[in-house]
Write a structure and sequence with these properties.
It contains eleven helices and 18 strands. The protein has about 350 residues and is of the alpha/beta class. Helix 8 (about 170-190) links the parallel strand 7 (about 155-165) and strand 8 (about 195-200). Helix 10 packs across helix 11 (about 330-335).
């Protein structure tokens, strides 16, 4: 029952966010992360917009997404980075497609060695600096580096980058993570590694801490104008929300007037009683959310409502939705079903 509901994505706002973030992290480069279908905005249109804006690094998360980007025409002049690697990946296809691999274990390196690719794999070796989201431990790191260097000498791989994730939990913890990363890089260099790239920061750390940026900063939600929780508005970060979700009222099967979007389409049921929508006569609360409908009192068939947007016309913002329901903006947008119609401004 989702016909009449539309997601509008403002590509010009996206490009403006990229430019803002590039300036903020310079002289480090910016990697535009497009995991989770570009945070629900649509993978291929957003990746193409990033490339047209001059972005040369795209974060795909997984190999399937990276291969989809290549198939869509994102050429080898654009570096695609994938780091969520399962136990039975098709490394040969990924390496031949020129997808950079974020590796954490000797087992992964051995799989790369056994892949039989026709070109060298470009490796980003990951050290765990405390977040425990993959990565070699301090004890495992020297062996990982040595095995990677063996593959480099054999012409199977290029040891291209060192990288990690940090928790962004506190300044003290982030400072410790940065110190551990520096130490790991020094250890690897003492073993003979020569990294072309080092990357650690994402999102908040990339904006707030220059010492975390190194050569490249990975940013996902921020590029879409989605800010962290805690009531921080995107404009405080110099960002513009990219997505607008709207719908037109229809007559439901029981004769009532409803909006044709429900929790089956990714609209959280917890918004009822907590969040409003913008109508021609002002904001109105969402009274109920069902499988394929949402109910807002006082609507007539054909009335347009805006669930959230950039706030310029008085509609709620994505951050308002997130704060009102105790979540973060990226959860709201990534829940929205791929079947919902998406259109793109500035294409």
């Amino acid at each position: 029952m989702s016909a009449g509901t539309e997601i509008v994505v403002d590509l010009d706002a996206y490009r403006a966010n990229l430019a803002t973030l590039e300036t903020a992290v310079a002289p480090a480069g910016l990697m535009a992360v497009v995991k989770a279908d570009a945070y629900g905005h649509g993978l291929i249109p957003m990746a193409r917009a990033a490339v047209e804006s001059g972005i040369t690094w795209i974060g795909a998360l997984d190999l399937g997404t990276g291969l989809e980007l290549r198939s869509a025409g994102i050429g080898r002049e654009i570096s695609i980075f994938a780091w969520l690697l399962g136990p039975h990946e098709d490394y040969r296809t990924a390496i031949n497609a020129g997808i950079d691999l974020g590796v954490s274990t000797i087992h992964q390196l051995n799989q790369v060695a056994d892949a039989g690719a026709r070109t060298r794999a470009r490796l980003h070796l990951k050290i765990d600096t405390g977040l425990h989201r993959n990565g070699a431990s301090e004890q495992e790191w020297p062996a990982l580096v040595r095995r990677a260097l063996e593959l480099e000498r054999e012409g199977i791989a290029e040891v291209y980058a060192a990288w990690t994730h940090i928790a962004e939990a506190s300044d003290d913890e982030d400072s410790e993570a940065i110190s551990r990363f520096d130490a790991a890089v020094a250890t690897a260099e003492s073993l003979g590694a020569r990294f072309s790239l080092r990357h650690l920061a994402a999102s908040a750390a990339g904006l707030l801490r220059s010492d975390s940026r190194f050569d490249l900063v990975r940013m996902g939600a921020f590029t879409f104008g989605i800010s962290p929780g805690g009531g921080i508005a995107p404009d405080e970060l110099g960002l513009v929300p990219v997505m607008t979700l709207s719908s037109h009222a229809v007559e439901g099967p029981d004769g009532s007037i409803v909006l044709p979007i429900g929790f089956g389409d990714g609209l959280s049921s917890v918004v009822a009683g907590r969040v409003g929508v913008a109508t021609a006569s002002g904001r109105r609360p969402i009274e109920a959310v069902g499988l394929d409908f949402a109910r807002v009192d006082g609507l007539a068939v054909g009335d347009r409502v805006v669930f959230f947007g950039n706030g310029a016309a008085g509609e709620p913002t994505l951050q308002e939705w997130a704060d009102s329901t105790g979540t973060i903006g990226e959860e709201v947008v990534t829940r929205l079903g791929k079947h919902l119609h998406r259109s793109y401004l500035g294409d």
